[in-house]
Amino acid sequence: MGFVKVILLCLCVVLTLFPQLVVCITRHYTFNIEYTNVTRLCHTRTILSVNGKFPGPRLVAREGDRVLVKVVNHISNNVTIHWHGVRQKTSGWSDGPAYVTQCPIQTNQTYTYNFTITGQRGTLFWHAHISWLRATLYGPIIILPKHNESYPFQKPHKEIPILFGEWFNVDPEAVINQALQTGGGPNVSDAYTINGLPGPFYNCSSKDTFKLKVKPNKTYLLRIINAALNEELFFSIANHSLTVVEADARYTKPFNTNTILITPGQTTNVLLKTKSYFPNTTFLMVARPYITGLGTFDNSTPAGILYYKQHNTSIKNLPFLKPTLPQINDTNFASNFSRKFKSLANSKFPINVPKKVDKKFFFTVGLGTSPCPKNTTCQGPTNNTKFAASVNNFSFALPPVSIMQAYYFGKSNGVYKTDFPETPLNPFNYTGTPPNNTMVNNATKLVVLKFNTSVELILQDTSILGAESHPLHLHGYDFFVVGQGFGNYDPNKDAAKFNLVDPVERNTVAVPAGGWVAVRFFADNPGVWFMHCHLEIHTSWGLRMAWLVLDGNESNQKLQPPPFDLPKC
Length: 569
Ligand SMILES: *[C@@H]1O[C@H](CO)[C@@H](O)[C@H](O)[C@H]1NC(C)=O
Ligand SMILES: *[C@@H]1O[C@H](CO)[C@@H](O)[C@H](O)[C@H]1NC(C)=O
Ligand SMILES: *[C@@H]1O[C@H](CO)[C@@H](O)[C@H](O)[C@H]1NC(C)=O
Ligand SMILES: *[C@@H]1O[C@H](CO)[C@@H](O)[C@H](O)[C@H]1NC(C)=O
Ligand SMILES: *[C@@H]1O[C@H](CO)[C@@H](O)[C@H](O)[C@H]1NC(C)=O
Ligand SMILES: *[C@@H]1O[C@H](CO)[C@@H](O)[C@H](O)[C@H]1NC(C)=O
Ligand SMILES: *[C@@H]1O[C@H](CO)[C@@H](O)[C@H](O)[C@H]1NC(C)=O
Ligand SMILES: *[C@@H]1O[C@H](CO)[C@@H](O)[C@H](O)[C@H]1NC(C)=O
Ligand SMILES: *[C@@H]1O[C@H](CO)[C@@H](O)[C@H](O)[C@H]1NC(C)=O
Ligand SMILES: *[C@@H]1O[C@H](CO)[C@@H](O)[C@H](O)[C@H]1NC(C)=O
Ligand SMILES: *[C@@H]1O[C@H](CO)[C@@H](O)[C@H](O)[C@H]1NC(C)=O
Ligand SMILES: *[C@@H]1O[C@H](CO)[C@@H](O)[C@H](O)[C@H]1NC(C)=O
Ligand SMILES: [Cu+2]
Known about the structure:
Layout: H1 2-17, E1 26-40, E2 43-50, E3 59-62, E4 66-73, E5 81-84, E6 110-116, E7 122-128, E8 138-144, E9 158-167, H2 172-182, E10 191-194, E11 211-214, E12 219-226, E13 232-237, E14 242-247, E15 250-257, E16 259-262, E17 267-273, E18 282-290, E19 303-308, E20 320-321, H3 331-339, E21 359-371, E22 385-391, E23 394-396, H4 403-408, E24 441-443, E25 446-449, E26 454-461, E27 470-474, E28 479-486, H5 491-494, E29 505-506, E30 508-511, E31 515-522, E32 527-533, H6 536-541, E33 544-549
Parallel strand pairs: 1-4, 3-8, 9-12, 11-19, 18-20, 21-26, 23-24, 25-33
Antiparallel strand pairs: 1-2, 4-6, 5-7, 7-8, 9-10, 12-17, 13-16, 13-18, 14-15, 14-17, 18-19, 21-22, 26-31, 27-30, 27-32, 28-29, 28-31, 32-33
Domain Plastocyanin-like: 33-146, 159-310, 426-551
Family: Belongs to the multicopper oxidase family.
Cofactor: Cu cation
């Protein structure tokens, strides 16, 4: 026993002193889901947190590492955690969406997520994946390149995570429960936050401001994460330009911009080159929502402060500069900006875009209505209806058990069907005058894919209840964004213009308001994979579906057996 301990200790010392000896290691984390009291905007709330931190702790790993996160539920809510963007090759049991790949971790229960990071480096994030618990349960995932690998851009002086979130003065669970009951839109958040802090434009918040101190003549890597629930965000820093170098843990061709736009579910790494002198002013870092849909939204302004500090000057006495941001509805900016993203796609980081397609899918995404239960009144968009949202007019109902468990144990009967429509059942002019009947269907239907099928998926926004940008997120995969446009997708005209050379590869893409986006991927990861709008209210209303990817023939192409501690329903 003592001997083993000494050997282990020596090993640890050696590995700490000579990390370059290590090829891949296992990283152990414990996430205690617990209550913590937090005050923002002069309101103190008992929030759900990981280890008492808000935002939650950083998860740091190197490409190739195994990560084990023991999640212990000390609260009364059911919980799951999703490792957003992590490919989870054959380890779908660790993906996290409740009732899709696992039953929730109940009070006093523990579940250890176990996954390997392969072929990814950059920034992702983790968040709760049940109801709206991700409002406060979220934090960064930082994936460093392998030891012997450097960044394909200038080595940054420092790396700074920047997480956007939304703060509610009331319990977000009460907000979504009320919305689902009445069928109306949810109450909006009271503030946006930058690293958990609203900033100087809110009441009671000047001390709750994220401040970033920089040195002149340096390059900083900002790891920007949009963990807000319901809003895409513009972000800009006064008098500084940003160079985008990575998106969703994939390197991009670098490009400069004064403003970025980032949807919930996306991550963007940017380089910030600081000035060559000590300016006698500070610089605001400001975000603003990008709004396309109808209804109310949080129109407040979160801000942080970037400053340079020479010895004793107090930054309080310095004037500040404010950046100019696009208009709140600037769809032209959104379209132009998303077109700037291209894969780095060089010899060191090649990409594998499906050139030939085995299966084509055409999915409409958008809002609609569902009937109001008898003898109740509802506050949906039309007389006595509820808001609903759908993919190919199906609102996805979550079953009371885990879909992937039902699949693995051959118990799908009564849980899900595999007849999700490949194209809309009733085609219409998707971006023209909406049909009179806005009612959606409601079912649990999956698409089944054979292992390694090359898939093309067109996501088409509808103008039912108003055209709106929808950030669609696919679990377990990155897809190539090969095309996008406004109006209805036209296979005869649009497919010829697809970029099959250096399309950006990501896990979340905005379907343009009143437009479409085309993505391609190889179905090389067996399991059940959720796909949904990352605007949480749209997911709650049913803008979600799931793919079932079958096992391949090789042993490393099969979904692993479920872990012994997989939660039960
Ligand atoms: C939060 O505040 C309430 C009211 O003051 C207190 O009863 C509770 O113990 C606090 N919870 C934590 C986790 O500190
Ligand atoms: C959880 O554990 C605590 C402490 O052991 C106990 O008081 C509580 O009743 C348990 N709750 C449930 C739902 O099991
Ligand atoms: C994690 O998963 C790997 C691959 O399936 C397995 O070999 C390993 O035993 C698991 N580790 C734990 C602690 O469950
Ligand atoms: C920054 O670099 C420039 C060019 O090398 C130099 O002239 C300048 O003094 C540097 N600024 C500071 C604050 O060190
Ligand atoms: C800041 O510096 C600029 C140029 O060096 C000068 O014009 C300006 O008056 C200074 N402002 C303050 C507040 O010192
Ligand atoms: C955006 O909003 C502005 C001001 O509210 C309005 O004048 C303009 O027409 C809107 N633009 C679009 C494209 O909707
Ligand atoms: C609905 O209301 C009517 C009239 O008040 C009543 O007869 C009926 O039982 C109610 N139905 C339900 C499902 O509550
Ligand atoms: C809306 O519903 C209410 C209650 O069911 C009904 O009295 C009213 O006539 C309806 N209005 C329209 C425009 O259909
Ligand atoms: C669809 O509706 C739009 C807007 O009204 C119109 O411009 C377009 O021509 C229509 N497309 C088709 C195929 O009818
Ligand atoms: C919708 O209803 C109106 C009025 O009832 C009718 O004139 C129109 O043709 C309908 N439109 C469609 C697409 O069915
Ligand atoms: C959808 O179907 C589920 C299961 O059948 C049911 O519980 C739920 O109430 C339905 N939702 C709507 C909006 O119709
Ligand atoms: C937690 O999940 C279990 C299993 O799905 C379910 O039976 C239970 O009602 C849930 N509890 C709460 C508080 O939502
Ligand atoms: Cu949406």
